[in-house]
Amino acid sequence: MSPEEIAAFDREHIWHPYTAVPATVPPHVVTRTDGVRLTLADGRVLVDGMSSWWAAIHGYNHPRLNQALRDQLDSMAHVMFGGFTHEPAVRLARTLAGMTGLPKVFFADSGSVAVEVAIKMAMQCTGKGRLMTVRGGYHGDTFGAMAVCDPVNGMHHLFKDVLPQHVFASEPPAELSDAYLGELSDTVARHAHELAAIIVEPVVQNAGGMRFYHPAYLKHLRDLADEHGVLLIADEIATGFGRTGELFGCDHAGVRPDIMCLGKAMTGGYMTMAATLCTERVASAIGVLMHGPTYMANPLAAAVAQASLELLMERPWRDEVAAIGKGLADGLADARALPGVADVRVKGAIGVIETHDPVDVGRLSAVAMEHGVWLRPFGRLIYTMPPYVVDADDLHLITRAMVAAARAV
């Protein structure tokens, strides 16, 4: 198909994330990806500031990850996980258990499903039916996950009348606040009798607003969960595997959750796969867990995930993330003085320019593309989560494009 034929059919028939059909801003046709670059059908080459929604931490077309898929394809592309097991799943489960300290592993096929499984685990383990979380969070687009996203400023207000009503504390502040610690204590104590679990994104609230909060709140939630016999679920789908500067967001607070959700960067951005892990105590209390995705533990996805995690642990990922963080802080500093900018913040390999007013996604993406960079702003945020392999020159291109987009607000 020609690029024109692809675009024409797409426009009339295909839904894209969070858009109508046809999309108000037509998508760009991509023909190739290499390293940190995306090649478009019209010949433009863009530095990817998004890591394909935070997943492609090693960049694209990585020879080692490519080879892992080829090798696995020669022996087995897929087999049902009901009644069977296989080496790629076992190796990956062993790696994940070792990395997290959580010995029981349930493989899912997307981050949202991993959250659904975590909710089922918590409710089945405790026999209680409500969850507690904080405002400003995002956990996915399926129904259980939607119910613990921000109920006011989230994306799911159309479904509020059919979603379960859970317990929400206010948004966690960036700085340590005794008053907020007290609010968390009061909220958990008041609802402990009905709470199966507390679910949060550790340290960084991602798609709900790219907010960073003090690790002491996570530690306090762990203590409160233990005090009141409530489980703690850590949604590490976006924060896991080094993005925040620690291997997992929970590491900033030195805590281990009862249940953890993983996804996105786990496969290096190659295939859809997620996992929900839990403690021995939780698994023993559950017994039979009534969930089983058709493509659970897909061998291709498991093989490339194992290769991705091995590559991550062999790389100086901590130094890479720290260098990205410094480059983002330096490169975004000029945005602070712009009239449309409310805040500039950096944590690990996450850089955020927050504006006073909602942004025009298509217009600001076009501004970034004029500077040779792919960004996908949303809400009041111009942000980046680049691949860990981005070099200083390309990182400079990303920050320059972000500042230019902020000037265009």
UniProtKB/TrEMBL annotation:
The keyword Cytoplasm applies. Keywords: Aminotransferase, Biotin biosynthesis, Cytoplasm, Pyridoxal phosphate, S-adenosyl-L-methionine, Transferase. Its main location: cytoplasm. PROSITE patterns: AA_TRANSFER_CLASS_3. It comes from the Bacteria. Homodimer. This is Adenosylmethionine-8-amino-7-oxononanoate aminotransferase. InterPro entries: Aminotrans_3, Aminotrans_3_PPA_site, BioA, PyrdxlP-dep_Trfase, PyrdxlP-dep_Trfase_major, PyrdxlP-dep_Trfase_small. It comes from Sinosporangium siamense. It catalyses: (8S)-8-amino-7-oxononanoate + S-adenosyl-L-methionine = S-adenosyl-4-methylsulfanyl-2-oxobutanoate + (7R,8S)-7,8-diammoniononanoate. Its EC number is 2.6.1.62. Pyridoxal 5'-phosphate binds at residues 111-112, 235, 293-294. Catalyzes the transfer of the alpha-amino group from S-adenosyl-L-methionine (SAM) to 7-keto-8-aminopelargonic acid (KAPA) to form 7,8-diaminopelargonic acid (DAPA). It is the only aminotransferase known to utilize SAM as an amino donor.
